[in-house]
Amino acid sequence: MSELNGRQRLETPRGTRGLRFHIDVEAVGRVSESIARFLGTGRYLLMQTVVVVVWVALNVFAVRLQWDPYPFILLNLAFSTQAAYAAPLILLAQNRQENRDRVSLEEDRARAAQTKADTEFLARELAALRLAVGEVATRDYLRRELDDIRQLLAVREGGEDEPDSAAGPKSPTGRK
């Protein structure tokens, strides 16, 4: 038992051995996106075309400089190497863009749901205001009432009979 106290216990895993690399995933992603963005430009295609034309011209016409004769095996190897690195970088950039699009879509959905809830709340408030305004005395209603009172006062002062009130009371909105 005392031997195990000086050493680590068997059921406890040891730490990792060897060199440990700390890679910033975001930095690698940003670099891959910038490379993928550059590989998709007309500028890159033009530069690659110029390099290929110069390569082929030098290897066909400059007899003393022929480092890659006609089947251009070295040029093919260079393109294969470029494609082997470009394809994963482009896929990585697409995956990052997909993740950004997904997050953006989720935010848009949340914003749309909030907007819908706000709109429904405002519609309910507007309906409540319309109902409340329907019960408030309008300017036309007050004018009619004041005209009726004025007529009643004029009739009482003049000793005439009261006007016909058989129509009944009117509501503040002017409806019966």
From TrEMBL:
Residues 155-176 are annotated as: Disordered. The chain crosses the membrane at residues 44-67, 73-93. InterPro entries: DUF1003 (IPR010406). Keywords: Membrane, Transmembrane, Transmembrane helix. It comes from the Bacteria. It holds the Pfam family DUF1003. PANTHER family: INTEGRAL MEMBRANE PROTEIN-RELATED (PTHR41386), MEMBRANE PROTEIN (PTHR41386:SF1). This is DUF1003 domain-containing protein.
